[in-house]
Amino acid sequence: MTETNGPALWASALPRPTAETHKHSRGRLGVVSGPPLRTGAARLAARAGLRIGAGLVKVFCPPDAAMVLAPALEAVMLDVFNDPLDLERLSEPMDAVVIGPAAGVDEATVLNIAALERTGAALVLDADALTVFQGRVDQLALGLDRDDVATPHAGEFERLFPGLLAQKGREDAARQAADVLGCIVVLKGDRTVIAAPDGRVRINDGAAPWLATAGSGDVLAGMIGGLLAQSMDSFEAASAAVWLHAEAARRFGPGLIAEDLPDRLPPLIAQRLDAAPGDA
Ligand SMILES: NC(=O)C1=CN([C@@H]2O[C@H](COP(=O)(O)OP(=O)(O)OC[C@H]3O[C@@H](n4cnc5c(N)ncnc54)[C@H](OP(=O)(O)O)[C@@H]3O)[C@@H](O)[C@H]2O)[C@@H](O)CC1
Ligand SMILES: Nc1ncnc2c1ncn2[C@@H]1O[C@H](COP(=O)(O)OP(=O)(O)O)[C@@H](O)[C@H]1O
C-alpha cells in the first residue's frame, strides 16, 4: 500500500506529556558523537531530539571530544565512552539512540552499532552508520528490527543496495530495502520515501529544496530519534519527522541552514497537536 504522507496519518499519535510525566518518563535519547573535529552533526541531532520533545538527550562521545562538546551544550547532556562496552552501558537506559552522523566510516562504528543493538533502545542509523556496511548489508540486517529506522540519502542507499534504485525506482527500492533490513527505511530526497517491512510505503511530496544544505539530514535523524524515544511507533515517527522537517524548511525558505530547523519545530508541533482529533 502506498500513501501520501501527511498529518492525518500520524497527528493523533504525536506524543503529549501529562501532569504525571517527568523528564525520564518522557523519553531518553542518546546521540553518538564523532571525534573532536566532527562533533557538529551530533549536536544538530541532539538539539532536534530535544525540540521534538524527548525529555532528556545525552550525547555520547569519545574521550578526546569531551572538551569540544562540553562548552557547546546546555540542555543537552554529555557522557564519555572509552569503548563499545562503555557505550552499551551508557545506552542501556536510553529509549532511542542515533548513530551515524559524522561517526566515522571505520570498524569502531561497526562495533559501536553492535553494542547499541545489544540494548533495548530503538536505533536511528544514518550517514556513516550505513556507509560502513557497504558490501555487507546482510550483517547490517542481522542486528536490526521493526523498531529501528535507517535514513539513507540516495548515495548511501546505492552503497548498501547497488543498482536497486535504477532497477526498481525509489518507491519499490525503498520497500525492498525495508524488507531486507527488517526496519523502517527513510529514503531521503526531494520526494522522501518512508517504507516499512510489511510493505507499507508513504511518499512525502513537496519538500523545499532549501533542505539541500549540510546537516539537515542530521537534524532529521535527531527528530526521528526524539519521537522514537517518546515511544511513538517507528513508522509513524519517521513519517511525522519527515513531514515536520520538510514543513519547517518550506516555511523558512531561502537562507535556511541546518541550525535553523530545530527551533522552527515548536509552532508546527503545537499546530498538529491542536488539530489532532480526539485530543484534549
Ligand atoms: N556539521 C557536520 O558536522 C556535518 C557532518 N556531516 C558528516 O560528514 C561525513 C561525510 O559527509 P558527506 O556529505 O561527505 O558524505 P556523503 O553524504 O556520503 O557524500 C559523499 C558523496 O556521496 C554522494 N552523495 C551525497 N549525497 C547524495 C545524494 N543525496 N544523492 C546521491 N549521491 C549523494 C556525493 O557524490 P557525488 O555526487 O559528489 O559524486 C558525495 O560527494 C558524514 O559523517 C556526515 O554525517 C554531514 O552530515 C554534514 C554536516
Ligand atoms: N532537493 C531537495 N528537495 C527537498 N529536500 C531535499 C532536497 N535535497 C535534500 N533534501 C532533504 O535534505 C536532507 C538532506 O539529508 P542528508 O543528505 O543526509 O544531509 P546531511 O548528511 O548533510 O545531513 C534530507 O532530509 C533530504 O530529504
UniProtKB/TrEMBL annotation:
The keyword rRNA-binding does not apply. Residues 1-34 are annotated as: Disordered. InterPro entries: Carbohydrate_kinase_pred_CS, CARKD, Ribokinase-like. Its cofactor is Mg(2+). Residues 6-272 form the YjeF C-terminal domain. AMP binds at residues 188-192, 217. Keywords: ATP-binding, Lyase, NAD, NADP, Nucleotide-binding. (6S)-NADPHX binds at residues 41, 153, 218. The keyword Nucleotide-binding applies. Its EC number is 4.2.1.136. It holds the Pfam family Carb_kinase. It catalyses: (6S)-NADHX + ADP = AMP + phosphate + NADH + H(+); (6S)-NADPHX + ADP = AMP + phosphate + NADPH + H(+). Belongs to the NnrD/CARKD family. Homotetramer. Catalyzes the dehydration of the S-form of NAD(P)HX at the expense of ADP, which is converted to AMP. Together with NAD(P)HX epimerase, which catalyzes the epimerization of the S- and R-forms, the enzyme allows the repair of both epimers of NAD(P)HX, a damaged form of NAD(P)H that is a result of enzymatic or heat-dependent hydration. PANTHER family: ATP-DEPENDENT (S)-NAD(P)H-HYDRATE DEHYDRATASE (PTHR12592:SF0), ATP-DEPENDENT (S)-NAD(P)H-HYDRATE DEHYDRATASE FAMILY MEMBER (PTHR12592). This is ADP-dependent (S)-NAD(P)H-hydrate dehydratase. It comes from Brevundimonas balnearis. The lineage of its organism: Bacteria, Pseudomonadati, Pseudomonadota, Alphaproteobacteria, Caulobacterales. The gene is nnrD.
